[in-house]
């Protein structure tokens, strides 16, 4: 939120306008917005609580960089692929996405021990996996969960969204299905 307010102050433009100009339009993300658009009604999905009960569709009226992104897996995959390829980024900025900036301390269980397989770059997690180095992140809006992993060396990536509070439980199975057996580290880090 602090970065959003800083960008809005510097540019004099609201986040939605900046996102359209700098990200959504250049990457062909036609189904993405930080605020609700009427055409989303036809494809909107109900979320589900951890008990499996449907929740109401949230129609965000104000942009919030932390939680109001409305998008599709296809659009978000375009974004992830742009990150992996450094598209639209200065080389120095692209390098920040693959350079550890800090250890990945666990918020839920603070410990002095760090995970030797996970670190934080600027904006994404880094994982040393059995397929090589990976960028990853997850999203959590309570009744909706999302996840992506990308392998810069091969430029492969996977994005998936779920409409349930328990949605991330499928992550390891989905990774194994798409990339084969191996250690992907992200979910082990999230689970601990």
From TrEMBL:
> What species is given as this protein's source?
Hymenobacter luteus
User: Domain Beta-lactamase-related, which positions?
Assistant: 2-169
Q: Which Pfam families match?
A: Beta-lactamase
| Record-linked PANTHER family | D-ALANYL-D-ALANINE-CARBOXYPEPTIDASE/ENDOPEPTIDASE AMPH (PTHR46825), PENICILLIN-BINDING PROTEIN 4 (PTHR46825:SF12)
**InterPro entries tied to this protein:** AmpC-like, Beta-lactam-related, Beta-lactam/transpept-like
Query: What Gene3D superfamilies does the database record attribute to this sequence?
Result: DD-peptidase/beta-lactamase superfamily
Which protein are we looking at?
Answer: CubicO group peptidase (Beta-lactamase class C family)
User: Which top-rank group of organisms is this from?
Assistant: Bacteria
């Amino acid at each position: 939120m602090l970065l959003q307010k800083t960008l809005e102050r510097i540019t004099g433009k609201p986040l939605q306008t900046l996102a359209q100009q700098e990200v959504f339009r250049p990457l062909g993300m036609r189904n993405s917005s930080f605020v609700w658009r009427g055409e989303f009604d036809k494809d909107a999905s109900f979320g589900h609580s951890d008990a499996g009960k449907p929740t109401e569709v949230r129609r965000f009226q104000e942009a919030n960089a932390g939680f109001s992104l409305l998008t599709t897996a296809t659009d978000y995959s375009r974004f992830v692929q742009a990150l992996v390829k450094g598209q639209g980024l200065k080389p120095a900025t692209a390098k920040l996405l693959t350079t550890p900036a800090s250890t990945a301390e666990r918020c839920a269980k603070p410990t002095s021990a760090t995970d030797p397989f996970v670190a934080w770059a600027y904006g994404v997690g880094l994982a040393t996996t059995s397929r090589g180095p990976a960028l990853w992140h997850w999203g959590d809006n309570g009744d909706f969960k999302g996840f992506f992993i990308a392998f810069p060396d091969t430029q492969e990536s996977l994005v998936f969204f779920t409409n349930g509070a328990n949605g991330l439980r499928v992550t390891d199975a989905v990774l194994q299905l798409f990339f084969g057996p191996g250690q992907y580290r992200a979910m082990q880090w999230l689970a601990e």
